[in-house]
Amino acid sequence: MRIGAAEPRYYALKEDQVTIGRSTSSTLSFPESHLISRQHAAIQKRGNAWVVVDLGSRNGTLLNGVHVEGEMTISPGDIIEIGDLAIECTGEDFEPLRPMLPPAIAPGPSLHQPDTQAMEFPGSRGVRLVADPTPFAYGRSSVLLRATGDGGAQLCIKLFSHVQGDTWDNVAAFEREVTAQSQLSHPHILPVLDYGLRSRPHGSPFVVFPYCAGGNLRGLLRERRYHPLGAVLPLLEQLASALDFAHGSGYVHGDVKPENMLFSADRRHAFLSDFGMSNVFAAQERFSTVVPGPQGGTTAYFSPEQISENQQTPLSDIYAFALTAYELLTGRLPFDPNLPTFKQMIAKVKGEVTDPRRFNPQIGDHARAALLAGLQVDPLQRPRSATQFCHLLARADGPAVVGTGAAAGRGPSVFLSYSHKDVHWLERIRVHLRPLERMGLIGLWDDKSIKPGDLWREEIEDALERAKCAVLLISADFLASDFCTEMELPMLLQRAKNRGVRILPVLLSPCQPDAVPGLSALQAVNDAARTLVEVERGEQERVLVALAKAVQEAASA
Q1: 94: part of which helix (H) or strand (E)?
Q2: Contacts of 154 (CB under 8 A, 6+ apart)
Q3: Residue pair 80/61 in contact by the 8 Å Cβ criterion
């Protein structure tokens, strides 16, 4: 089957499985598309239903904008995105495959043979040159191209679908994007640098933005099962300030989702983008005025009022923002992705939200409450702003936003690093720290918090990320452990340098801590000449009392 540049082709599902990929052995083969993996995805029959399965592709497979994990049931009206293709499920066992690449940059009969010559984009502030016309990303009505600006600055050009005759069906999206984003000047809103209309070979409107080398939040989501709150809260706070600024300026974004949250190359700065779906509302009535009529945005992130009442307000954006935070902290959406789209919509309207702890049991009480508050069916029951939502998340585990496992919902996390041969000392230290834990002043974490089936390396990395204080149980067995000295210790030393994590070594037995890089610079709780095994029980207890006081001081700092 060949995909035409103008009209979609149709494929009737007659087999129980249809594979899609670049490989010629695939049922539907697209060997010229560099965005499709050799064996990308499959559509399979399950009884009377059909499901889509990602086959370990490089770029992933999306169903209605949601990343496919395992099997996901498809229904008429669903859109499956595979590389630069969109497969629309129309019912009657037919699957029309349409290219996502707008004809504006597809002069030939094949979508995978774009113009190889450089393209010029004359804007109101100068001409931009695109040396490679191959898009690096695709949208519903546009593609993204990489360009070079003055002084070698990396730019992004968003090229919309071309004019057909005297009309252009995307003019509203273009005008909204340019009007909204050019008027919104904020450190975390991606600025419009220029815009214009490329007259040849087609009349194609375009907008120029800075290029964000760190990718988008969807890419961040694909890197691990879920992310610790302490690591991503600063990014969420930046995006929240941008969203609240837009609301204060009289705009509903209308399409808040991971794809529209971009990062700088070092991922320390986040930017809200794509106001192509934004709607203007009365700023002085911004929490009561709604925007009725046809709704833009991605259905997976629709709010209940968008579904049931066809209305958007700033609180609809808050819902989508909370949904994105939920996905970031759990790796999942709060509704069963295997349900058909219309049943997911019904679940939203009914408020049938999956407890986030089902997907991430380490989420604390307050963080759980914040996520559920943001996903309330009644808009008036949600936080009044994205910043307020982030404040509720930040309350989750104290000033450092930490606490996992047994420590969830309690004070700053204390990471306990030890050799399993010294487990009896671990239990004794826990006894002395237990009163602080019971009062909610600290939360304790060691590798016993890892449950069967958990990804142990990710769990330990998450705990290290959240720690405000660490206790090292130093012995010859600890120093001999590659895991303790080559994984845990370097990460703790780095966090001590960058974030002020306090490290408290306790010398259990005679050994040579100076032989391990970084340990010699740390002040131990007890004297190296009087390790715990070398002193009487009473002195052992006094050392552990001193340790507990040091932990309390570090946690309250």
Answers
A1: strand 94-99
A2: 146, 147, 148, 210, 211, 213
A3: yes
In sequence order, the 6+-apart residues with CB closer than 8 A to the CB of 454 are none
SS (H, E, C) 319-348: HHHHHHHHHHHHCCCCCCCCCCHHHHHHHH
Indicate whether 20 pLDDT > 70.
Answer: yes
Strand partners, 71: 53
pLDDT at 171: 60
Distance in angstroms (rounded) separating the CA atoms of residues 397 and 410: 5
Whether 521 contacts 496, CB under 8 Å: no
E strands within 344-457?
413-417, 443-445
Q: d(Cα 15, Cα 336) in Å, to the nearest integer?
A: 27
pLDDT attached to residue 404: 33
Tell me whether residue 475 is exposed, middle or buried, using C-beta atoms within 10 angstroms of its C-beta: 0 to 12, 13 to 18, 19 or more. buried
User: What SS3 state is found at 480?
Assistant: helix
Residues 549 and 526: beta-carbon distance below 8 Å: no
H or E element in which residue 472 lies: strand 467-474
Distance CA 309, CA 210 (A): 36
DSSP state of 167: B
pTM over 0.85: no
Tokens of 27: 């049922």
What is the per-residue DSSP string for 490-542?
Answer: HHHHHHHHHH--EEEEEE-SS--GGGSTTGGGSPPSS-TTS-GGGS-HHHHHH
Please, are residues 256 and 301 in contact by the beta-carbon 8 Å criterion? yes
Looking from the CA of 481 toward its CB, the CA atoms found within 13 Å total 19
Q: Single out the residue of 386, 257, 253 nearest to residue 318, CA to CA.
A: 386
DSSP per-residue string spanning 188-217: TBPPP-EEEEE-SSS-EEEEEEE--TT-BH
Q: What is the pLDDT of residue 16?
A: 80
Only one residue has tokens 């103008």, namely 6
Q: How distant, in Å, are the alpha carbons of 289, 394, 479 from that of 388?
A: 20, 10, 45
Cβ partners under 8 Å of residue 297, min gap 6: 254, 255, 256, 257, 277, 306, 312, 320
CA-only gyration radius of the chain, Å: 27
